[in-house]
Write a structure and sequence with these properties.
Helices cover 31% and strands 14% of the residues. The chain is of the alpha+beta class. A hairpin with a 2-residue loop joins strand 4 (100-101) and strand 5. The two termini are 38 Å apart.
């Protein structure tokens, strides 16, 4: 079965968007990481790194909401992610939650699964 490619009046715009999307997918490892607080944590080294970076007894979770966020009805501060007892990421931008997997953000999906 052939792929279903829609007929577009401005095909060049679709082709350019596809090229940019392919560059993102293929070159994601060369992109400068977002500067989050907490990314600079280093483990003890060797075999102990697995236990240090593992999400174990507690689930990953968002930070506690500020009083302003509570007043708005938020359950947590989504700019803070508690990865485990040793690692907390701070400064997650709101734009990061726009990337969706189905009806929920990719970050929320990962936190729920871990």
């Amino acid at each position: 079965m052939l792929p279903r490619i829609p007929f577009a009046a401005n095909f060049r715009a679709f082709a350019d968007a596809g090229k940019r999307l392919a560059e993102l997918h293929l070159g994601y490892e060369s992109v400068e990481p977002y500067p989050l607080e907490g990314r600079d944590v280093s483990g003890p080294g060797g075999e102990a790194d697995y236990a240090f970076f593992a999400v174990r007894d507690k689930k990953m979770s968002f930070g506690r909401p500020t009083p302003e966020q509570k007043a708005e009805g938020a359950r947590g501060d989504k700019s803070v992610i508690h990865y485990n007892d040793r690692i907390t990421l701070r400064g997650v931008p709101a734009e990061a939650y726009r990337y969706k997997l189905g009806s929920r953000s990719a970050i929320e999906w990962i936190i729920d699964r871990y």
